[in-house]
Amino acid sequence: MKITDLGPRNGNHPRTFITLLFGTVLGFMFATFISSTTVRQPWLPEYYRQREPPSVVSDPHTGNELREASGPEQDVGQHAAHEEVHAHENASLAQQLEREVRILCWVMTNPSNHKKKALHVKRTWAGRCNKILFMSSVEDPLIDSVALPVSEGRNNLWAKTKAAFKYIYQHHLDDADWFLKADDDTYVIVENLRYMLYSYSPSHPIYFGCRFKPYVKQGYMSGGAGYVLSKEAVKRFVEDAIPNPICRQDGDGAEDVEMGKCMEAVKVLAGDSRDSVGRGRFFPFVPEHHLIPNHVDKDFWYLQYAYYKPDEGLDCCSDNAISFHYVSPNQMYVLDYLIYHLRPYGIVAHSQPLPKKLSLGDIVRVDDLGKTTTTTTKKSNQLHQHQRHKAANSHRGVAQAVDETRQDVTDPDTKANEPNT
């Protein structure tokens, strides 16, 4: 074969090359046009309108996604008492406290949250209360809510709180010894609440929660973390505080601050809810917030508000923690599983001995010691000193001890501008 036989024939090679190049460019431009218009052109075939796979909001994989996840449509159920792990549990002490420390839990909610939040409270921790009430502005058989004669909205939370306690006073005062208020995004370990309250008599004028220090001389309890009133405290609040001009008479204001002012005005003590080593039990945020060191800046408002200096890491939280706030509906079920079902095999927990019963005079003096104590050694020394002088002071009546300790009442007209707690 001659080399010349491989050359162009009839002069067509340049024309063929140009045609091929033009077709390639035109095809690329058309493909680009198609891909850029598939989202907007309904006339294109289905396979041209294919989009990126949608994110599955019901399948969260991180804590941030869980925060906004809605709860399950159906109840997740329970593990049966006869199953392998639960069959070996001894709940006799918890059952004893359920009889001896009766708690009525009432949950602050609103119509838009009945199905979204309150229902999941009802399906998890609320069933462990001796009695549960959901306080709203409309009746709803889904959660058996009470329709209070108040308007909804953050500016009416104080009005709703007063109306709720008045309703309880009128209809359920004898159904319990202690009365817990919680939000519909608060999670509560009721057994630990009973354990803490065991030392106290419901006839003591006292209430407990996550104690904050501004606005009220003796401090006040965070609304979001939940707070619990003794029967005597409920009586004083409804009978003496609500009608008294010293308590805010309209429905506006920060609910937890106004409650704190009223409690102090009628000589209801702000109790110390920490455990025996000074770790907190009521928390205004999710566990992650309190457990992780340096989770927030040092100037974060909570660190300034806390009555007792918060610790970080595991020292933040008691092993008998009671409540956490801002818990999403899905996280309610997660906490329920981790607390009541998950067990590390071979580690058998034994309950601490029940604490001794305290007189009101004991409570007042121990609380005063706690205010000036900065170390365990100091606390021990002062407690021994208190015990040596206890006999000499025994002639002082309880009422006198309370009055001398709580003489001053914060100006009720002082308006708080605190964050949502």
UniProtKB/TrEMBL annotation:
Q: Does the keyword Transmembrane helix apply?
A: yes
What are the record's GO terms for cellular component?
A: membrane
Xref: InterPro entries = C1GALT1/C1GALT1_chp1, Fringe-like_glycosylTrfase
The pathway this protein participates in, as annotated, is: Protein modification; protein glycosylation
What is its membrane topology? Single-pass type II membrane protein
- EC category: transferase
Question: What EC numbers are recorded for this enzyme?
Answer: 2.4.1.122
Q: Is Mitochondrion one of the keywords UniProt gives this record?
A: no
Q: What residues form the membrane-spanning segments?
A: 17-39
A GO MF annotation of the entry reads: nucleotide binding
Location relative to the cell: Membrane
Sequence ranges of Basic and acidic residues compositional bias: 80-89, 403-421
Q: Give the span(s) annotated as Disordered.
A: 52-91, 373-421
Task: Report the superkingdom from the record.
Answer: Eukaryota
Positions of the Fringe-like glycosyltransferase domain: 103-265
Cofactors required: Mn(2+)
Q: Which UniProt keywords apply?
A: Disulfide bond, Glycoprotein, Glycosyltransferase, Manganese, Membrane, Metal-binding, Nucleotide-binding, Signal-anchor, Transferase, Transmembrane, Transmembrane helix
Q: How does it assemble?
A: Homodimer; disulfide-linked.
UniProt similarity note: Belongs to the glycosyltransferase 31 family. Beta3-Gal-T subfamily.
User: What PANTHER family is this protein classified in?
Assistant: BETA1,3-GALACTOSYLTRANSFERASE, GLYCOPROTEIN-N-ACETYLGALACTOSAMINE 3-BETA-GALACTOSYLTRANSFERASE 1-RELATED
Q: What's the stated role of this polypeptide? A: Glycosyltransferase that generates the core 1 O-glycan Gal-beta1-3GalNAc-alpha1-Ser/Thr (T antigen), which is a precursor for many extended O-glycans in glycoproteins.
> By what name is this protein known?
Glycoprotein-N-acetylgalactosamine 3-beta-galactosyltransferase 1
Q: Give the organism, scientific name.
A: Anopheles dirus
